[in-house]
């Protein structure tokens, strides 16, 4: 029997996953005024200075849709297990409230990712063979989720915030194409080191 300090096998073993969304294709992530524009963004109108707010109601609605899709992603990821979204990076293309981001990156930290499946079938009928691929599929599902909700929308024409019913539909991409815009890589993980009956590390 080993003596001294022994690790609890039930302790948390965090896993970190880096997510990158590439939204440069305007067929997959439209920019024209419609329920499928706005891309994906963590930034609402409140994220911009007065000089950089959306200039029209249509642009304000687009920003609200992008923010709704990001919330859908967070909800989908937190449904797998307790998580934190860290190190969010939005490309410089989103320099003002009118601009639609073309790249979004963030890290998801799961305190215990053992609850995340590593097998299954994705939305394009492909095989899921790892936790990273499972997370990728959940993000793609969230992007394609049609959502209607009340959202605060800035109308640049009147300079006012308005509470409006906004619908965010999935983009003009197929399921396979949406999956292709999402990349997920496990960047770090903590493994528990235990000792067998002889005292050797396992």
List the domain count as a whole number.
1
Beta strands, count:
8
What is the residue-mean pLDDT, rounded to a whole number? 90
Element-level helix/strand string: EHEEEEHEEHE
Number of helices: 3
Give the low-pLDDT segments.
192-202
Main sheet attributes: strand count, strand direction, barrel closure = 4 strands, antiparallel
In angstroms, what is the radius of gyration?
20 Å
Helix content: 10-25%
Straight-line N-to-C gap: 14 Å
How big a fraction of the residues is strand?
A: 25-35%
**Quaternary form:** single chain
Plain-language structure description:
- The protein is of the alpha+beta class and 202 residues long.
- The protein has one domain.
- Helix content is 21%, strand content 27%.
- It is built from three helices and eight strands.
- The chain has helices at 57-78, 131-144, 175-180; strands at 15-22, 83-90, 103-110, 120-121, 127-128, 147-155, 160-168, 182-189.
- A four-stranded antiparallel beta sheet has the order 2-3-1-8. A two-stranded antiparallel sheet has the order 4-5. A two-stranded antiparallel ribbon has the order 6-7.
- β6 and β7 (160-168) form a beta hairpin.
- α1 (57-78) packs antiparallel against α2 (131-144).
- The model is unreliable at 192-202 (pLDDT under 50).
